[in-house]
Amino acid sequence: MDAARYARIRELFLATEDLLPPQQQEFLIREVGDDRELLDEVNSLLDEHSAEFAKIEGESAVPVAAPIAAVTEFGSAAKPSGDTTRRGDSKDRTNPKSSKPNRKKNGDGAITKHGAQRTHASPRHKSTTPPKSNAGNNQIWAARTRINRRRNSGWLWLAALLPTALIGWWTYRQVETMIEQTVRTELKGIVDSVALSADRFLAQRVGVVQSWSRQTRLRQAVEELNAIAKSDPPLEQLRESPLIDEIHQQLRELSGSKDVKFIIWNDSYRTIASWSTDVIDVGRPIHPKGAANLARVLSGESVVAGPERLVEAVEGYLPESDRPMISVIVPIRDAAGDTIASMMVRSIGMFDEFNQIFAESSVGGQLDAYAINRDGLMITESVHAVSMATLGQFDLPAEQIAAKLRVSDPGVVIDEDNAGTIVRQVRPVTVAVAGAIGGERDVRTVPYPNYCGEPVVGAWRWLDGMDIGVIVEESADRAFGPARVVRFSFLTLGSLLTLTAFLAATKIARTSTADHAAIHPLSRYEIQEQLGSGGLGVVYKARHNQLGRDTAMKVLRGDRHNHEDRLRFDREARLAASLSNPHSVQIYDYGHSDEGEAYCVMQFLRGLTLQEVVSRSGHQPIGRMLFVLRQICDALGEAHSLGLLHRDIKPQNIMLSLDPSVGDWGVVFDFGLAKPLQPDAGVYQTSETVWAGTPMYMAPERFRQPGVMDPRSDIYSVGCVAYYLLCGRPPFIESDPESLFALILSEQPIGIAIHRGQQVPAAISDMVFKCMAKRADDRYATIAELCRVIDHLRVDHPWSIDEARVWWGHHG
Predict the structure, then answer these.
(1) How many Å apart are CA 150 and CA 683, to the nearest integer?
(2) DSSP 3-state of 652
(3) Phi, psi of 175 (to 5 degrees)
(4) Of all helices (H) and strands (E), which one includes residue 665?
(5) Looking at 368, 648, 664, 670, which residue is catalytic?
(6) How far apart (Å, rounded) are the C-alpha atoms in residues 374 and 427?
(7) From its phi and psi, is residue 131 left (phi > 0), alpha (psi between -120 and 50) or beta?
(8) Position with higher pLDDT, 143 vs 438
(9) pLDDT grade for 768, boundaries at 50, 70 and 90
(10) Which DSSP string do the residues of 743-787 spell out, in sequence order?
(11) What are phi and psi of 369, to 5 degrees?
């Protein structure tokens, strides 16, 4: 831009800002004619110009004393021209009297300036009411406006407060660390002890029932009864067989209990013997709910079912007890060792003994120990839960806690009749339950709410063999009581010192001069909260003051302002801004402040990441996996068509929400590791000598040659995400990085059906494992090819809006 062009823009800007907003555009269009570029330049200045801050700056500027000399735009003094009038000045310019400038004196003697004489900071219109200050919203971005005024008082404040604060903080941290370590060790020891006791108890009971199934008399009776059933006799003949009573009598003798209950199924999934006196269930197929466990038993496993409450499995059948029951199902083999039937045994006192293990671990009510199943139900009678139910604070009676209470965050009924009553609503499960179901072995000393809404710390384990979770929790107030005493003492001392230093600093500050408020380019955003911090930037939730739109604002961290990090930050914003697919995160704004802060304003995503989705409800339906995967492929398809690789596709980088018209809506975000297939020297100027990304979702070739750019690497990561959704866990899990790399480079992941506990169509498994092929040539060649396969599979595995709404209602 040359000097003449700049002067013309400046002249139009100063003339236009004198007008009211409705008149500005009409004036500009009349002045610029066909020069649209000039119109855009002036409008850009008007958009960035803030009348409020300009008024503050103008009022603090030095008034013009006399029109002897005018300051040019380059800062040098120049004599005034003969024409000192402006806009309709009709006085004779040759008349010395009329040549005096038109000026008004206000209360302080300042001269009111015309548009051409006024600086950019001068106010445009007089206002009778002071502008509303938004300094409170912009303090996070404001320059340190009072550094000069408080420099001396700041040193005094630091000298008085900093040594005491550092010593107090160090002492408190040492005490807190020791208490936290003690709590962690205690919880870990108790949960390991309870888990070991429960596992041993159930394993011992399984062993006992297995020994019964090997008894010669019982096995022979089952073989004879099975032979009769296979001959397809009349149903009454099978039900009246004396062999059923013989089996029942043998189990009474072996168990020492007259109330022992049993059911025997043959390999056709039909009941051939039962404890029931009317044997109404003999000859009927097993209830569909138990078919999966029976299939495992017929394949040679032994299964522990429950604790669970019995329901009416067949017409006319009444459960023998309203208490939860634990059933042991074992295979019965013939003389050749082949499985010919399966036997279920219960009502031998297993639940009461199992429940006692957890009750004894509660240590007089100071701890809360209980077991859960994969649905998040408490399957033992927690001492604490029973106590709360007895006091009427649950919508369940105390005797129905076990196998009915869902361990989730509580809802509170707010009405006159039931004020304060804790009820179990369809809400997400607690942190401990989600961790246990997810297979974590963790100890959490950061307080989280339990099923009563109380802050607790806890530890949990998952027993894979028995398919139950063990949780031990302790009140956070009790666990960290000593730390609170120390903290209160130091906070009291710190408050007194801070107050003293503040009063001294204020007294000194009163003698200083006022400073101008610095205007930051992000002052139009109101910062609401910090969402998180990564290796490169800090992300805030912000609201645009004019548009009222929520955004996510990423700012380059203060310790990452080197040249390399700035280039990486710029690259992420530019590459992400080039995408327009609705399943890719949208970029709204980007730039740098005068202080060198780099920022990027983007779409604020609401919902749950895929990792959180799986943590809340386990492995996902096949139709939902295909539905979400198709949306991910849409986003990657656009990126690949523009020559851009994401390189960090993982469940944590995909946000899922509920769209009223579509159902599940997925958005891919975090393009911090994205890279063009053919890097442009003007965009991608950073070097990369090591691999970057999340190891368990990275393609094998990314480990061997980090610099190789191949779109099929993203396809591998998409396959890993599909595997994670179907199985509820990543394809490879290993704490040792070298072992993890070895698995990814050479081993195949465990079959999907094994993790799900049910068969998966071959077409689904083939699609997932083709995406995850070790060799890139064995994968789908393009995202478009993968999309065609997904579209074909979705015909047989639909996922509807109603199904999505039900899931979000239960787990969202």
Answers:
(1) 42
(2) helix
(3) -65, -45
(4) strand 663-668
(5) 648
(6) 16
(7) beta
(8) 438
(9) very high
(10) HHHH-PPPPHHHHHTS---HHHHHHHHHHT-SSGGGS-SSHHHHH
(11) -115, 130
* Distance in angstroms (rounded) separating the CA atoms of residues 292 and 277: 27
- The tokens for 682 are 């003007």
- pTM for this predicted structure: 0.43
- Parallel, antiparallel or unpaired: strands 644-645 and 598-603: unpaired
According to DSSP, the residues that pair with 70 across neighbouring strands are 78
Confidence of residue 502 (pLDDT cuts 50, 70, 90): low
Rounded Cα gap, residues 203 and 302, in angstroms = 10
Residue with the two structure tokens 């070298």: 738
Q: Which residue has the tokens 């499985």?
A: 339
pLDDT of residue 620 exceeding 90: yes
Tell me which of 292-301, 314-323, 394-403 is least confident: 314-323
Name the one residue in this structure whose structure tokens are 């004396």: 242
Cβ within 8 Å of residue 364, ≥6 positions away: none
Cα(714)–Cα(640) distance, rounded to whole angstroms? 9
Taking CA atoms, 72 is separated from 68, 602, 664, in Å, by 13, 41, 61
Q: How far is CA 160 from CA 155, 175, 176, 500, in A?
A: 9, 24, 25, 9
**Phi then psi for 468, rounded to 5 degrees?**
-135, 160
Distance from C-alpha of 323 to C-alpha of 379, rounded to nearest angstrom: 11
Please say whether the beta carbons of 745 and 774 come within 8 A. Answer: yes
Active site (annotated) includes residue 515 = no
Q: Is the sign of the CA dihedral 640, 645, 648, 653 positive or negative?
A: negative
Phi, psi (rounded to 5 degrees) for 528: -105, -45
Mean pLDDT over residues 64-72, rounded? 33
Tokens read off for 117: 């004489």
* The token pair that represents 133 in the structure block: 């200050």
Answer positive or negative: Cα dihedral of 98, 101, 104, 110: negative
Task: Output the furthest CA–CA distance in the chain (Å, rounded).
Answer: 136
The tens digit of pLDDT for each residue in 104-161 reads 333 333 333 433 343 333 344 444 444 443 434 444 444 434 444 445 555 655 666 6
